[in-house]
Design brief:
Layout: H1 2-25, E1 46-54, E2 62-64, E3 70-75, E4 82-83, E5 88-92, H2 95-120, H3 124-157, H4 164-193, H5 197-222, E6 225-227, E7 232-237, E8 244-246, E9 249-251, E10 258-259, E11 262-265, E12 270-278, E13 291-296, E14 303-311, E15 316-317, E16 332-341, E17 353-360
Antiparallel strand pairs: 1-12, 1-17, 2-11, 3-5, 3-8, 4-7, 5-6, 7-11, 8-9, 9-10, 12-16, 13-14, 13-17, 14-16, 15-16
Helix pairs in contact: 2-5, 3-4
């Protein structure tokens, strides 16, 4: 009985194994692709990765960094907004710099007031005082001269009427009065001449130095407001109110790196495609006058012809997605720039990855 049960179980297990093998051996029909993969439209075309950018005559997107450090107090634009050249983008806390500007402005104004005072000399009141001192000196000389003349006349009539000591004192008094008159006259001439040219020149230099320091400080104050360097579209704002930013950029929470505070793109009717051509494929490129290219939008069956713009004629190390400066790569690539008109019925944005095939004019698409 026991052997019979074991035999039945063995048969059941064998049948189960055969059924399982049959079921798992059936090949499932593959799902149809959501979109057709990009195919090479050229007989000898080469494939490259491309990234969309705003179209610029030179360079890439406009990366804006502040020239001063501080905390953001106000953001004046929003992402996707079209701005004109000179439009304020954001403001950095400026209280200390503004106080410095006011201090240097006051110092420059004080120096200018002193300079004007020197140029306005002689002051009328000072000149009148100096003139009065000259008149007083003349009066003192006349008084001393009269006293001496009287003593001399008395001495001539009767030598015993005037002592030798009194006569000497009167002569000395006249000399002192004449000396005081001479000092008063020189003081009058000095007052009348006004400020010394060297004093005026020295004050002019001080005023000029303080004025330039004020203008430099005022120019630095203006840098606490980031402005748009050209017409364009705000692609991203990588900081918020209260964030600390510096000339190195804004801290990025997720990558823990530093990004541009604001990224702007062109508002023109074109978008650019930057392609990185592997150095081993460079020799396969056609002449620049014959270059043709076609871009394929990932996830769709859409492809768009591209217009060749230029090469950046310097083969540089390829940067992977980590975009770390310390990253070491062995592959070097040649950047090529293409452009195309913005399609009206398709959303495309800078930073989007696309597939690109590059061929020659005489090559016929497949």
């Amino acid at each position: 009985m026991r052997n019979r049960v074991l035999f039945i179980l063995s048969v059941i297990g064998l049948l189960g194994g055969l059924v399982s093998a049959y079921i798992f051996g059936i090949q499932k029909k593959p799902m149809p692709p959501v979109f057709n993969p990009a195919t090479n439209p050229y007989e000898k075309g080469i494939y490259v990765n491309g990234i969309l950018e705003s179209y610029q005559t030179y360079g890439e997107n406009i990366n804006i960094y502040p020239e001063v450090s501080g905390t953001i107090t106000q953001i004046l634009v929003s992402e996707g907004e079209t701005v004109r050249k000179g439009t304020p983008l954001l403001m950095i806390e400026e209280s200390v710099q503004r106080a410095t500007v006011e201090q240097q402005r006051s110092q420059a104004e004080a120096a200018r007031t002193i300079l004007e005072e020197l140029k306005a000399q002689p002051r009328k009141e000072n000149l009148e005082v100096a003139k009065a001192q000259v008149e007083l000196g003349n009066a003192n000389v006349k008084s001393a001269q009269d006293s001496l003349d009287k003593l001399r006349a008395s001495y001539a009539l009767d030598p015993n009427s005037v002592s030798k000591d009194s006569l000497d004192n009167a002569e000395n008094a006249l000399k002192v009065a004449r000396a005081n008159l001479e000092v008063a006259q020189k003081q009058y001439e000095l007052t009348k001449a006004g400020a010394w040219s060297y004093d005026i020149e020295n004050q002019e230099k001080q005023f000029e130095a303080l004025s330039k320091a004020y203008l430099a400080s005022k120019a630095l104050l203006a840098k606490y407001t980031l402005i748009a360097p050209s017409d364009g579209v705000i692609l991203s704002v990588n900081a918020t109110v209260g964030s600390y930013i510096s000339a190195q950029g804004a801290y990025e929470t997720y990558t823990q790196g530093l990004d541009p505070v604001v990224v702007m793109g062109s508002s023109e009717a074109y978008l650019a495609v930057r392609c990185y051509i592997d150095e081993i494929l460079i020799h396969r490129l056609p002449q620049t006058s014959e270059i043709r290219a076609r871009m394929f939008i990932r996830g769709t069956d859409i492809n768009i012809p591209l217009e060749f713009v230029r090469f950046q004629p310097y083969v540089s190390p390829k940067i992977e997605l980590s975009n770390q400066r310390l990253e070491r790569v062995d592959v070097r690539v040649l950047p090529a720039i293409f452009r195309f008109e913005r399609p009206k019925n398709l959303n495309l944005f800078p930073g989007q990855l696309v597939d690109v095939y590059i061929g020659a004019r005489e090559e016929k698409p497949k």
